[in-house]
Each structure stands twice: as structure tokens, then as C-alpha cells.
Specification:
By secondary structure, this protein is of the alpha+beta class. The chain has one domain. It contains 3 helices and 10 strands. Strands 1, 2, 3, 4, 5, 6, 7, 8, 9 and 10 form a 10-stranded mixed sheet that branches.
Length: 222
């Protein structure tokens, strides 16, 4: 009798599930994006930008790597202030930060969804990334994008950072920037750059990963 009752309930449950499932009409290119959970906690990985999905970090930096690259698991005052600016300026998040603790990783991968297009990006420590910098003079700023003056700026990834914010693990890039010298090498006929010094605040060191919206090109720094 118990077996027959269980069989009836199972059949009814399957019929109800199929009825509910058929009520949904899925558009083209529809897909499910599962939350990316950090293996060491119950929090999940997100860059706080809705069209950046499928985030994964790999290969945490060891103590010897941190010491070699002069990286601390608790951010000093300057870097903690930069992290706060990254939340505010890059992610439009102005909530007070309580934790200075971060984790460092060697690589991160993610997918950018842009309408019907999906762009897969994988970044590694040591990669050189490029961003389009707006250098339009303040007096010439207008609403017309064609009036903008831009140039490509470059930075090398020093580390991938994970910061705990509530139940979120938010990734950021720790970057070493190349500052343009606004001149060309006379022999090679190419622009000259120098590494940004600690006393130079042209660029922050910490940026949200949304700044990198394409797979970087390979660059030879030798």
C-alpha cells in the first residue's frame, strides 16, 4: 500500500513539473548562469556588473610570491583608499568598507555578455592590458563623442585581488602602469613609456575588472 501511494505521488509530481515547465517560453540565446561560489566560504564571486558572468579565479599566490612582489594580505592606508575609490568610481558603490583583507590569485576568467555576443576573457599575472584613455582638454569637452581625444594606455597585471564585501567576493586588478613620455624613439619610431613610480598618482593601482572588456593582445616586454 505504501509503495502504491509513493508511486501515485511521484507520478503526480512529475506531471505538475512538466505542466509548470511548459508554461515557460524561452527566448533565443537563453541560458542559465550559475552563481560562482568560492570554495573556501559560503560567499560567491561577482564583479558587481550584471553583464560580466562566469567568473573564476585560479592559483592563489603563495607567501613567497607575496614577499617577492611586496604584496600584503592586509592593505595599507594608501591601497585601502584606492580600493574604496575603485568601488565608488568603477562600481558606483559608496558603502563603507570594513575589511582590509584581500587574497591574491594568478589568473581570472570571465564572460562578457553584450546583446547577442559573448566575449570570453582570461587574464594572467604578467599580462599587459590596454585601455582607451580620454585625454580631451577640459575646455574642449562636449557631448559629441567625435570631439574626444583618446590614446591607448598600457598596464601590466601584478596580481588579481579578491576582496570580501559582506557575502560577496569582488575581484580587482592590481596594475603597474606604463606612463607615456609623449615622444617616440628615434630609431624604432614607436612611443616611449616608463613605469609609474609610487609617488606618481596618474593612475590608481587597483581597478575593477570591468575596465578590461576584451582579451588582451600579446606584448613582448623584453
Amino acid at each position: 500500500m505504501l509503495q502504491e501511494t509513493f508511486s501515485i505521488l511521484t507520478t503526480k509530481g512529475e506531471e505538475l513539473f512538466l505542466t509548470i515547465w511548459k508554461c515557460f517560453e524561452f527566448p533565443n540565446n537563453w541560458y542559465i548562469s550559475p552563481l560562482q561560489f568560492d570554495l573556501e566560504s559560503d560567499s560567491f564571486l561577482t564583479c558587481m556588473t550584471k553583464n560580466y558572468i562566469n567568473l573564476y579565479v585560479q592559483s592563489s599566490l603563495k607567501k613567497c610570491d607575496l614577499k617577492k612582489d611586496d604584496l600584503e594580505t592586509f592593505l595599507n592606508d594608501d591601497l585601502f583608499a584606492e580600493l574604496g575609490r575603485a568601488y565608488e568610481e568603477d562600481l558606483n558603490n559608496i558603502e563603507y568598507l570594513t575589511s582590509r583583507k584581500v587574497k591574491y590569485y594568478k589568473s581570472i576568467s570571465y564572460t562578457i555578455v553584450d546583446k547577442d555576443e559573448q566575449i570570453n576573457v582570461k587574464l594572467n599575472v604578467g599580462d599587459v592590458v590596454d585601455v582607451l584613455e580620454d585625454i580631451t582638454p577640459l575646455g574642449n569637452i562636449s557631448q559629441d563623442a567625435t570631439d574626444m581625444v583618446t590614446r591607448v594606455s598600457y598596464a601590466q597585471i601584478k596580481a588579481i585581488i579578491l576582496h570580501q564585501k559582506g557575502q560577496l567576493q569582488v575581484p580587482f586588478l592590481f596594475l603597474d602602469w606604463f606612463i607615456s613620455q609623449n615622444t617616440n624613439d628615434q630609431k624604432l619610431k614607436c612611443p616611449l613609456y616608463k613605469l609609474q613610480r609610487q609617488s606618481d598618482y596618474t593612475w590608481r593601482c587597483i581597478y575593477a575588472i570591468k575596465w578590461i572588456d576584451h582579451q588582451p593582445n600579446p606584448y613582448n616586454l623584453d
